[in-house]
Amino acid sequence: MLNRLLSLIVKATNITPSYTPEHCLVVTKAVGGCTVCEETCPHQAITIGRAVEIDEIDCTGCGLCVQACPSQALSSSVAYSRGAPLKCSQVKGDAQSVQCLTRLQPSDVLALAGRKDRVTLVRGACEGCAIGSPEVPARLAQLLQDAAALAAVRGRTLHTEVLVRERYDTTDNPETLSRRELLRGGLRSSKRFSADLLAPLEALGEAQAEEKGVPLELEKRFLLLRAAQPEAEARVPWTLPRVHDGCIMCPVCTNVCPTGAFKRELSPVQMGGGGVLKLEPERCNGCNACVTSCPVRVITLDGEVTWGELSGGTQEVYRKAGGALTGSVARR
């Protein structure tokens, strides 16, 4: 009992991921459910019942579950100074650090890179790590790849360096920052991070109360792409569902979608029945719930998405008119 109490005191900084139930495929009852976070956690800190439960004592805050979650129901906050190297907590030294590098998201990597488009991340030996697991290097590689794809749309080449060290100090950085400058930068970064958190939430607050919100990281990625002002025909790193012939206009995809990307509008019987299935592309996080849950298996995911399609607002993806089924899979 005493050990558990001491553990709670030590973990008072609340390093556990934030959980948004309405974004969770378990809560939305997607066919097959989802156990990815539970299977990914290297410390058995996650259990799944009607929702995801995270043990605040067993959780080490590594962020691996956040990286693995297909619907972005889990998220981690990270404060950092832009333009400075970032090390994991297992590496000694006075350089700025984070519990584990897999707490980062692609938008964090771009923010770290700053105007110089250069990121240096320093990790320890992941084998036998008490915080993360041997999977960290692979997850980190995918994270940097996703960040590079976002940077490419903005016409930037992201230069990333991952070092394995036992110790890393601010003086190890060729462009040395003093301890005071680093702390000042960290405080400014924390304020910017808070502002980043509030802005999308305020925008979402203007939406109708019954609408499901959009995960913060998804919104950040969309804003990063919009800021790049790509050509309409330019391909962007996004995934969207395609609805093919055979759709029966049932409510399954709209019910299981964790972000409310799908909308269904049915016509009265006296008007011949039928209806329209619509999609808000920027709300889709590619979680695959609609694909696995569709009872007639007519939905697939497509990674070939253009900026014009993503930014073009609500689009009609399927129409059932007068009893006839009409697919609307053409890309904009």
TrEMBL record:
Keywords: 4Fe-4S, Iron, Iron-sulfur, Metal-binding
Signal peptide feature range: none
Start and end residues of each 4Fe-4S ferredoxin-type domain: 50-79, 238-267, 275-304
One function term, GO molecular function aspect: 4 iron, 4 sulfur cluster binding
SUPFAM superfamilies per record: 4Fe-4S ferredoxins (SSF54862)
Classification via InterPro entries: 4Fe4S_Fe-S-bd, 4Fe4S_Fe_S_CS, PSI_iron-sulfur_center
PANTHER family named among the record's database cross-references: PHOTOSYSTEM I IRON-SULFUR CENTER, PHOTOSYSTEM I IRON-SULFUR CENTER-RELATED
UniProt name for this protein: 4Fe-4S ferredoxin iron-sulfur binding domain protein
Species for this entry: Truepera radiovictrix (strain DSM 17093 / CIP 108686 / LMG 22925 / RQ-24)
